[in-house]
Amino acid sequence: MLSLQVFMASCDLIAASLGACGCAISVNSEVEYRICAEQKLSVEQVAPKDKPRKWCKYYSNGTIDVPTPLFIEAYVYVGSRLCIGDKPANNTSRSIDDELRDQLAARSGFAIASWLPGGELEIDETAQFEVVFANKVVAAELLGREATIRFTATRFRWVFSDGERAFSAFHQKAFENAENQTAQAFVGIRVDYRFSGQPWVVGVLEAEIPSNLLLLNVVEKPRRTLLVG
């Protein structure tokens, strides 16, 4: 008899019913998420039904270790009883248990920030800031079944060194002081996964990753001299 069960411990009920769940998470400049699964294989080996026969001798009281004046000789099925001279019979069936483990790891990729016009920025000159995150789907096989991890951007925010905050992928602003400034974006990422053709398990992880840091050199407007002819 062969039985297969795919499962993962420490899952919620929904994830356990799908046969896999998240087992490792890493959040730095990108999100790494892993789906883990175990497959338990149980095989029961049973002695064949058509057993061979053998010539058997035993005492008239049915035993092989309490002698009687008479003994009985007959053909019997191998393993059906002990005969004089036999060793104790082994079990006619046994079980073999084995486990297979597999995992699918995927990385979200990075959030990339940029700004225009670049170079030096004059006071009160408007700059354009943009952050880009490419939604990503990673598909592979997990214990021979299709598994998919999906990364989706759900929110954006900007942090500027002059204290201003913004909550969009694209933002325009100017700086009032001539000094070095910084800008950095943060992107909220939602992780979903699907296993073996089942519905998506949505929102197994919500995380935020930082973009690259932008450095800006804000300078005074150049003085213009009026020439009188």
Describe it for me?
With 229 residues, the protein is mostly beta strands. It folds into 2 domains: 2-44 and 97-219, no CATH class; 51-90, no CATH class. 3% of the residues lie in helices and 58% in strands. The protein has 1 helix and 16 strands. It has one helix at residues 13-18; strands at residues 2-7, 21-27, 31-46, 53-59, 71-77, 93-107, 112-116, 120-122, 127-132, 136-142, 145-160, 165-166, 170-173, 180-195, 201-210, 214-219. Strands 8, 10, 11, 12, 14, 15 and 16 form a 7-stranded mixed beta sheet that branches. A hairpin with a 3-residue loop joins β2 (21-27) and β3. The longest helix is centred in the N-terminal third of the chain and has 6 residues, at 13-18. It is rod-shaped and about 145 Å long. The relative contact order is 0.19.
In brief:
The protein is mainly beta and 229 residues long. It has one helix and 16 strands.
